[in-house]
């Protein structure tokens, strides 16, 4: 296990997807507005963090690997803020384009007395213009030419950065160069990810993507859906995250349900990002698919113990993995 975790440090993982800015406003409520029956929040503190696909980047980084982030953001204040944070973390910004007239996705959460009162989303879900999509694809190809990349993660939030054409071009290139390709899908491009190494939907995404009814806990329905998906996409591996029920991993020769490890669940946000980052690092470092699934399953559970979106703690994960899974 130690050797596997040590190998993460030599990996370079390219993450392409919808990067967002998560803004938090903390304050107090001590009166109701005279304008409408709503609380007035007196803001005491403001913080901006990387969100969306960038949370996968932060998890890749926390595991010791080098992430390369590829995305399109707006040529606006929020976009500049994302670039400032990325540069502040000593990460490369050479895979990022800023698009004039396109708003950067910002999710603002207003929190008072420890309670989230409202979330305000400023975003567009429109597909990138063809010229901008081409420019981003060219940046990705240039990075793949310039750097030794071990894996590519598509972190798709349906905000228009990833297109079917981009998927086809980058996956084809990845396969030609023996680079692992991994997908965390959403609805729009769900069935466009052909010939990838690992496809990782959650149960809701699997249901919606295949338009199939899958009752939670119905193993036969789940197996039928995954078999259909694997055949349709020609994916080497499909891993379905089942929240408190664990993960279901299917290769072309074997299938296993790995139960979750019972934990004090504080907050599930960001767990999927941790799972995909961990599974990718494990596969890229040479772990077999079921070891990768088991460690990723464990990682997803560990981050749920914390409130808010937090990257995985590598040392804690290694200690837990050695304890629970043995010292592979």
UniProtKB/TrEMBL annotation:
Pfam families hit by this protein: PfkB
Domain Carbohydrate kinase PfkB: 13-310
Key words of the record: Kinase, Transferase
GO MF annotation, one: heptose-1-phosphate adenylyltransferase activity
UniProt-listed InterPro entries: PfkB_dom, RfaE_dom_I, Ribokinase-like
Taxonomic superkingdom: Bacteria
Keyword Methyltransferase attributed: no
A cellular-component GO term for this protein: cytosol
Transferase keyword on record: yes
PANTHER family xrefs: BIFUNCTIONAL PROTEIN HLDE (PTHR46969:SF1)
Protein name per its UniProtKB record: D-glycero-beta-D-manno-heptose-7-phosphate kinase
Organism from which the protein derives: Hufsiella ginkgonis
